[in-house]
Amino acid sequence: MKPVLALVGRPNVGKSTLFNHLTRTRDALVADFPGLTRDRKYGSGRIGDRPYVVIDTGGIGEGLEGVVEATTNQAMQALSEADAVLFLVDGRAGLTAADQQLAQQLRQLDKPVHLLVNKIDGVDEHAASAEFYALGLSDLHPVAAETGRNVRRMIEQVLSGF
Ligand code: GDP
Ligand code: MG
Q1: Long-range contacts, stretch 73-82, CB < 8 angstroms, 24+ apart
Q2: How does pLDDT run across 27-49, given as a tens digit for each residue?
Q3: CATH numbers and ranges of domains, the chain
Q4: Which end of the chain is more exposed for a tag (fewer CB within 10 A), N or C?
Q5: 119: Cβ below 6 Å to ligand 1?
């Protein structure tokens, strides 16, 4: 069985960058423009002999002018297909209202949700992570999708649940 991992989070937190790292492709569109990845995007990868499927979503909270929309159909579908959710937040930007709204929605899923505090390259990972414990998600992983810092350890922990 290949566990299916859905990458969710508000725009610009690094979902597509992590997708590329986990699948080692340049397929997902990475940009400084929030909301550019419009479609769900599937990829596969493996750590050692453990394969997995990743879904990059760009569909959550991408309303205009910072308004957080209800979870879109595409993101909802990705969540329904997932065996585990990788919920990304931006460890440099800090905790936002959109993160809190998403966390509330994700807590209601009957699936493992891992909180990934991303962009911890060049910052103290403990300091960057501290405020995110308020989201009430116990599986917290400080990572840097861009450099790969802690990504292998994180994915091993996620896969160990299956
Ligand atoms: P998405 O909207 O969630 O898919 O975010 P993207 O993957 O497109 O990334 C948004 C921006 O954050 C881009 O400029 C990335 O280069 C940057 N970014 C992503 N991951 C990291 C990271 O680990 N560290 C740093 N410093 N920047 C990152
Ligand atoms: Mg994206």
Answers
A1: 74/39, 74/40, 75/8, 75/40, 77/40, 78/6, 78/8, 78/40, 79/6, 79/8, 79/109, 79/111, 81/4, 81/6, 81/55, 82/4, 82/5, 82/6, 82/55, 82/111
A2: 565 655 555 545 558 889 999 88
A3: 4-159 (3.40.50.300)
A4: N
A5: yes
